[in-house]
């Protein structure tokens, strides 16, 4: 059993929390509005869930999921995440987040900016290229023919192994896209973004990206 902290409890965060609980983990949820606003969700999720501040969720989680609007990434607490595996689910939507010149120019990618904000954390990009409801409904047991695959990217092999095991337990094969910079291959509008594909075809979509 692992304690998973969630910084952000929107659609993706809630879906990950549901699946984590189903796999026997405990979750600590947080959002920008305060733990008291998560009372109903915690009651629905049951005794393996509790609400906290973002700082407390970061401190409590052995693995921490950052699932906030991209424009809020600089508000993610830094110190309590030092040394930890951090799963980045964020997507850059300039219509919502405003324009970031380094992303628009291709000089950087969203996950690289989060990693720069969290220099002591082990950031792995995952769960950004799947619809939130599919996290709960689209998984299948390992070995299922044409099992759907999800991409991950990161610079730390051990951290990627931790995240890959979690993704697999949720019911999906894993395709390692490589270092964190390669996460741009499954960003918004890329062929692998939202793709409902088995592993071999997902690799082709990543290559096309």
Structural class: alpha/beta
CATH superfamily: NAD(P)-binding Rossmann-like Domain
What is the averaged pLDDT score? 97
Count of discrete alpha- or pi-helical segments spanning 4 or more residues? 9
Summarize the biggest pleated sheet. Answer: 8 strands, mixed
Counted beta strands: 8
Gross morphology? globular
Spatial gap, N to C terminus:
36 Å
Order of helices and strands: EHEHEHEEHHHEHEHEH
Helix content: 25-40%
Rg, Å, rounded? 16 Å
- Segments where pLDDT lies below 50 for 5+ residues? none
Strand content: 15-25%
Commentary on this structure:
The chain is of the alpha/beta class. The chain has a single domain (3-208), classed as 3-Layer(aba) Sandwich (Rossmann fold), CATH 3.40.50. Helix content is 34%, strand content 17%. The chain has nine helices and eight strands. It has helices spanning 11-22, 39-45, 54-60, 94-97, 101-104, 110-117, 132-137, 157-169, 199-208, and strands at 3-7, 26-30, 49-51, 63-66, 85-88, 122-125, 149-154, 173-176. Strands 3-2-1-4-5-6-7-8 form an eight-stranded mixed β-sheet, with helices on both faces. Strand 7 (149-154), helix 8 (157-169) and strand 8 (173-176) form a beta-alpha-beta unit.
């Amino acid at each position: 059993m692992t304690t998973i902290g969630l910084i952000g409890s929107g659609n993706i965060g809630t879906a990950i929390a549901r699946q984590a609980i189903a796999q026997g983990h405990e979750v600590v949820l947080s959002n920008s509005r305060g733990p008291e606003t998560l009372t109903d969700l915690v009651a629905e999720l049951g005794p393996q869930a509790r609400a906290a501040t973002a700082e407390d969720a970061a401190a409590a989680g052995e693995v921490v999921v950052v699932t906030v609007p991209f424009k809020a990434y600089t508000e993610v607490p830094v110190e309590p995440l030092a040394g930890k595996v951090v799963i980045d689910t964020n997507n850059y939507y300039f219509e919502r987040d405003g324009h970031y010149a380094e992303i628009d120019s291709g000089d950087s990618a969203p996950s690289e900016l989060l990693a720069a904000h969290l220099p002591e954390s082990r950031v792995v990009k995952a769960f950004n290229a799947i619809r939130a409801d599919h996290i709960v409904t689209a998984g299948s047991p390992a070995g299922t023919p044409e099992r759907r695959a999800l991409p991950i990217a990161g610079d730390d092999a051990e951290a990627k192994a931790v995240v890959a095991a979690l993704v697999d337990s949720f019911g999906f094969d894993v395709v390692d896209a490589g270092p964190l910079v390669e996460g741009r291959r499954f960003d918004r509008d890329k062929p692998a973004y939202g793709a409902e594909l088995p592993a071999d075809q997902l690799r082709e979509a990543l290559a096309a990206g």
